[in-house]
Amino acid sequence: MPELNLKQITDKLNAEFAGDTRKLVFWYDDKAEFVDDIDALELEGAKVYHLEPDNQFRTKIFLERQDTQTSYLVYAPFPKPPVRDNHLEDTLLYSKRFYADRASLLTVDLGIEEKYKPVIQKYIKFFAAKDRTQKFYDLEIENFTRESIEVALMSVLCKARTVTFDEVLRVILTDGDLADNRFLAEFEKYDLLAAFWRLCEEQYGYADVKPTLEKLVITMFVTYTERYLKKGLPQAWRGFVSYKAGNIIAFMDNLMNNILYRDRYDELSGHVASVLNAKAVLAPLLSDWILDCDSFAAVDELLLDWITDRLLNEDIGAKLGTLEVLTICVERMRKHFGVRFKAEYNMLIGAYHVIAAARYSCPDAMEAIIAQYTGKDYLIDRYYRGFYYAYDALADTAGYEKLRDLVENIYTNEYLAAQLPKWTAAFATDSALTVLPLQRSFYSRFIRSNKAKMVVIISDALRYEVGLELYQQLENDANCRAKIEPVMGVLPSYTRLGMAALLPHRSLEITDDFKVLADGLPTDDLKQRETILQQIAPNSRCIQYDDLKSMKKAELREVFTGMDVVYVYHNQIDARGDKVNTENEVFTACAEAVEEIYALIKKLAVNANTYHFVITADHGFIYKRDKLNESDKIGGVSGKDAFVNRRFIISQQALTGDGIATETVGRVLGNADSKHISFPASANVFKVPGGGQNYVHGGCSPQEMLVPVITVRTEKGHMETRPAQIALVSMVQKVTNLITSIDFMQTEPVNGTVKETSYKVFFVSDDNERISNECTYVADKKDAEPQKRMFRLRFDFKNKRYDRSKQYYLVAYDEKNDVEVLRHGIVMDIAFANDFGF
Question: What element of type H or E holds 149?
Fold first, then answer.
């Protein structure tokens, strides 16, 4: 039965004959399907002329000599004769042909050459649905070949973003399963499955008697791996290597680096690694040449195991080939799987530096101890902190528990055990309080003489090494000028006394009932501190960070306008460390404190017209993960007529005993107070009721008493921003049409620090000749979901001959400063551009 009914044919023919000019339309009905119906057609303004195989010459005379006015449908119930046998061939050149089968209609309508009509006919089942047919039309393919037709059909079925086989395969691998893949089922339904596997062979070199997606993926990962293994693949894998390595590498690089597909890359990698037993097979090949391999997470697992083993043996000089442990950690974190194993590598970096501190030696004199601590010893505390910050982020720590024990032992028994007694002994010397400025002179030294508005940020327990991290972050900010210096904190190094020392005063005292007074006034709460501050600086105030952080611009300006000095009290570290149930989160609190203070400075500089800051602390802290044994605690402590803390005791009489040191309150505060401060000469604590032993402060150590003072000046009216960036989403390695649409993504939403940016995007040759139109895109999307920040640009290429052996580039420029921000290499494979065959 004919595919088109007579009504449809009549309508289409009448459309062809519309108009006032004479028209000739030839209809070669190859199978004579309409021979019985032809005279029933109700043509408007035209007649039917019956062509016979043996009356061609007579027909020619009739149409071109005898009747030159009437429009005719020349109907032939047989195939069109070859050119050499067709007397009407020249007549056809100025006439039109009509086709009644679907394949012919599609071929003519789309401008597909006659020789590709069998391709359309082969897949005619696909065109049975109007929506699929329309989607095929919507692809706007410029040059039709067998491959471009087949890839277009697959693209419609896959809902691929661009008409490339790379994109078809990408969709199949990322949106479908390896087994029972729904897209391959669709291909089979429409007779495209054989074409899919043929294109896999042509483009990726994968061929198999019984091809499967799993074996294709294995081929791609093994071929991708061979790129890195300079000493050769394992023997068992060599049969999977493809001869189309370049195409596979380009595809895999794009899949791995694309923000939308990298997770699926990881899943596929894990599956292939499991099938190939990659960790066991690669283990004998472990060397420095494997460092660049991004194929499998198993590479990182092998390296992590090797480094852990070396560190457990305290072999910090170990090398893998020519690479040292730290180099391996840093380099692997920059690789694809570095994000997944970032905590492990950072943990090993921390462990490395703590283990390197074994056999630690501390000088005797206070000046030398401080110089060594501020020069390098603080790094031991920082890397110990970094070790646990990363260790606590691991989902499974079983493989690193012995390493943790070693780190803890070295930090406690070789570092702190050597350093703290030396510090305690040095602090007892006459010159100890003259080496550094004293914390109790803070206001007179850093605040009193300042003429500009100043914000003092006091972060509870921000010890020197944490403050130094904040300073380094500020130093790296081009809009900040910062400097840091340590001051000698008070003893006992606890909040009430440290906070009082930072206020303006002539005298500090600890009363017999252990209250802290500044010039005779209490300093315990915010209001009391503000009263003392306003006696010296009337235009001043004290405020909690928690009250500031949610304020809007107008509210901030109301707080800071007209003020000479504002004290901001920030409490992140001490708030977590002082509670039994959160003290093991103190290193996380340190990282958060640094970020919060940095963000506060930036916020106030922009919104509160404040550009001069001083950041300091009331005291530091010591943290050790392992709790002390009861035998290591100092007992025999009485709370009668004494202020008892784990790290200090204030009483009228000095405590005596092994491991206990004493100082008078008067020496520390510069008054005549004869009360005694007793404290452990080590990192130990007094045996007192209650929990909380890991995080302590109040004692005598550089960690507790060296307090950072960071002065910061920021540029006026400047807020650090960055442009919203764009990235390629479509997996485009080859352009095959003069009209091509490509998908991009705005990588992050526009917000306070990410600014709207305009880009111009186009294609160029290797000698920078522009070969396409220029598209302009304004990156202004604020959506949090990445998919909503995707956009499509359409490019029209110059109709010229392109050299397939040369490289062409998709480039993007920031329109404001004309800086290139994207360059992606492609091959121009436009077969018939500027090629008419004669």
Answer: helix 146-158
370: which 2 tokens?
Answer: 């401080």
Closest CA to 604 of 709, 712, 504, 502: 712
* Amino acid identity, position 443: Y
Look up the pTM and report it.
Answer: 0.81
In whole angstroms, give the CA distance from residue 126 to residue 132. Answer: 7
Instruction: Report the chain's C-alpha Rg in angstroms.
Output: 40
Distances (CA, A) of 787 to 215, 259, 304, 747, 829: 30, 11, 35, 10, 30
Q: What is the mean pLDDT of the chain?
A: 91
DSSP states of 180-222 as a string?
Answer: S-HHHHHHHHTT-HHHHHHHHHHHH----SS--HHHHHHHHHH
- C-alpha 63: how far from its chain's center? 72
Structure tokens belonging to residue 672:
């005549």
Query: Among candidates 308, 408, 416, 301, which has minimal Cα distance to 362?
Result: 416
Q: Which has more confidence, 221 or 734?
A: 221
What is the rounded distance in angstroms from the CA atom of residue 826 to the CA atom of residue 688?
A: 72
Do the beta carbons of residue 626 and residue 718 sit within 8 Å? no
Of the candidates 36, 8, 7, the residue with the CA atom closest to the CA atom of residue 102: 8
Angle at 208 between CA 203 and CA 209, to 5 degrees: 140
Cβ(501)–Cβ(439) under 8 Å?
yes
- Spatial neighbors of 398 by CB under 8 A, at least 6 apart, are none
Which residues, at least 6 apart from 443, have a Cβ–Cβ distance to it below 8 Å? 502, 503, 504, 505, 536
For residue 741, what are the β-bridge partners?
794
| Dihedral-angle region of residue 355 (phi above 0 means left; psi in -120 to 50 means alpha; beta otherwise) | alpha
**116: DSSP letter:** G
Residue 116 has a CB neighbour count (10 Å cut-off) of 17
User: How far is residue 745's CA from residue 163's CA, in Å, rounded to a whole number?
Assistant: 18
162 by DSSP, 3-state: which? Answer: coil
283: left (phi over 0), alpha (psi -120 to 50) or beta: alpha
φ, ψ dihedrals at 581, nearest 5°: -80, -10
> What's the start-to-end Cα distance of the chain, in Å?
41
What are the beta bridge partners of residue 778? 758
Residue 838 above 50 pLDDT? Answer: no
- Say how far apart CA 815 and CA 779 lie, in whole Å: 11
CB atoms closer than 10 angstroms to residue 526: 14
Residues 6+ positions from 70 with CB-CB distance below 8 Å? 22, 46, 47
**Can you give the pLDDT at residue 837?**
36
Helix locations, 291-338, DSSP H: 297-312, 325-333
Average pLDDT in the 628-648 region? 82
Distance CA 750, CA 753 (A): 8
296 in Cβ contact with 278 (< 8 Å): yes
For residue 64, the SS3 value is helix
Q: What is the pLDDT of residue 399?
A: 96
The pLDDT value recorded for residue 836 is 38
Q: What is the DSSP string of 332-369?
A: HHTSGGGTTTHHHHHHHHHHHHHHHTTT----SSHHHH
Q: Listing from the earlier edge strand, what are the strands of the sheet with 706-714?
A: 480-488, 706-714, 612-616, 454-459, 565-570, 540-544
In the chain, the amino acid numbered 355 is I
Worst-scoring range by mean pLDDT, 330-344, 408-422, 483-497, 627-641?
627-641
Contact 632, 723 (CB under 8 A): no
Neighbouring residues of 239: CB distance < 8 A, sequence distance ≥ 6: none
Q: What is the pLDDT of residue 631?
A: 75
- pLDDT of 690 higher than 80: no
pLDDT digits (tens, 9 = 90+) for 281-302: 999 888 877 888 889 999 999 9
Length of the chain: 838
Grade residue 110 by pLDDT with cuts at 50, 70 and 90. Answer: confident
SS3 565: strand
Percent of the chain with pLDDT over 90: 70
